[in-house]
Amino acid sequence: MSVVPADALPGGLLAADETTGPAAELGPRARLWPALAAVYRAQLSRARVARIPLLFVATFQSVGIMILMRGVVDGGDEAQAVVAGSAVLVVAFVALNLLAQYFGQLRGSGGLDHYATLPVPPAAVVLGAAGAYASFTVPGTVVTAVFGCLLFGLPLTHLWVLIAVIPLAGAALAGLGAALGLLAPRPELATLLGQLGMSAALLLGVLPADRLPQAVRFARDLLPSTYGVEAFARTFAAHPDWALVLADLAVCGAVGVVSLAIATWAYRRAAVR
User: Fold this and answer.
1) What is the pTM (predicted TM-score) of this model?
2) Which of 151, 130, 141 is nearest to 232 (CA)?
3) pLDDT averaged over consecutive 10-residue blocks of the chain (273 residues)?
4) Alpha helix (H) ranges present in 119-213?
5) Which of 127, 170, 175, 214 has the fewest other C-beta atoms within 10 Å?
6) d(Cα 94, Cα 198) in Å, to the nearest integer?
């Protein structure tokens, strides 16, 4: 039996240490925007079939609420609040309620382990899923807004403001829904929290603020979707105050950034456990 020195072996440990230098580094992690686009497309394709029936439920729910409120609200500011709140309620149903359930189930089933093994930034996972779920709200929100305007005799002139209201309110509510789902210790609790959040959006967003007690109005101001509702409702005036509309949208956008940042932190926290 012949003995060969360790440093003569190409694959020897000593040869690797002394001749090849430091070990090769892993490839770089995926950049945020390409990773976000990939997660968004994957979530959109996955949820298309399962979520479309629920989108119809959300739309019919909002339309039914407006029909019921038509019996007690004739017009004016109250009608504007009902229509705006019902339209944003579609966003709350999908972006808050369903997203909380999705992340709760993903955490409970160990599905976060799959994303944790991918070279994808945590923000891309949260933003991609939130964007996909919020995208499903566009048709239902537009249908609800048009139906409400026709039902209460409101002008259709400034419905284009939904181009800003839907993504900003969707971001704020989706971030909140994702955070609730990721922080809840059990999927059942995530579902409960999502439904409670949607109920809060229903009661505090659809009902006219002037008819609410002062303490409830304070709680309404803490709800992220409130500022989207206010921005949309202001556009029904004969001469909208666009400065106030932009201010409400800015607040809604700022809340969306904060809620998505909290959801990203909650994702990191849940993924390492």
Assistant:
1) 0.82
2) 141
3) 47 45 50 81 71 79 92 84 94 88 86 76 85 84 95 94 93 91 91 90 85 85 90 93 95 92 90 69
4) 122-135, 137-152, 162-183, 187-206
5) 214
6) 9
